[in-house]
Design a protein that fits this description.
single chain, about 350 residues, alpha+beta, Immunoglobulin-like, 3 domains, two-stranded antiparallel ribbon, Carbohydrate-binding domain-containing protein
Amino acid sequence: MPTAACLFPGLNAWFYLSFHFKPLFAKVIKPLVRSSLEAIIFHSIYEGSPMRILVEIVLQYRRAVIGVFLCFMPVTGMGASQNQYEPGYSIQRTNELVNIDGMLSESIWNEVPVATGFWMSYPVDDRKAEAKMQTEVRLTADDQFLYIGVVCYGPQDYVIKTLKRDAEFKDGDGFGVVLDPVNEKTNGFVFGVNPAGVQTELLVTGQVGRRQDLEPGRLPRGINIAWDNKWFTEVTNHPDRWIAEIAIPFKTLRFDDTKKTWGVNFFRLDARSNSIHTWSPVPIEFNEFDLGYTGELLWGTPPAKTKRNLAIIPYARTSISKDYETADPVAYDFQAGLDAKIPVTS
């Protein structure tokens, strides 16, 4: 059976405003409505022109009516407000030597802010992650490295699919950081580690698409998994948490040394509950790699550019061959050389 609210949708707004804006109704709206109704009834009886009076009332009190609707309108959009929230993290530099051992024993880790309060991103995106499964992230830096200290709370029955680097990272437990050093939401870097200390790194080279477009077992489009670089991690496991300590050399990143704001997000993969948590909220239909939903990494003094990350890889190859049909002597071949990787820009 249809209710009064279904037949008269305006009643929903009326009851909501009556409850939440009692003083406004008592002093302004109620007298206005009463006097308006009395005027309409009076003129209906004695002059027979209620529509004219109604129009005059609306015109006279149009500002009050508009104000009431403006008060009501934001209420309808509150459910999605967390997906518009962009958190910020002010990074503090350190002169202390940070030993990458997975212990977070240096004093700087007790002095810097803690990024926590992760949101659910999948399979729902309308609430915070449970306290027992929360994640804490701390950051600091010196002239050479960006340091990240991570505490992932939860029982120790982790899901680790493989110990092979870069393989099936999203199919198990893990933590990742998304960096957009130029903060233009077009290109970025992803560094991830799992409870066994296995690393993965990715390049984000464009729009990564929506989650529902992702094929099973495939990474989003716009992700380059072939990118490899040298960075450092150590992980320790405890009954109610696992801890990761990460050092990313600035020379592996491309950034503008005049920009004081980088884009950043952190994500946590929990395979047991098949859930994904993010520090800066990411709507359920988008991927945790999406640069459109990063928070802000705020630098008091931006890192200076370092020398180019030149990589030289020596190689040697040898072979032995013999043609038994022609009875030729054994032929030996030896080759050696160098492969060099030089970034075009930094």
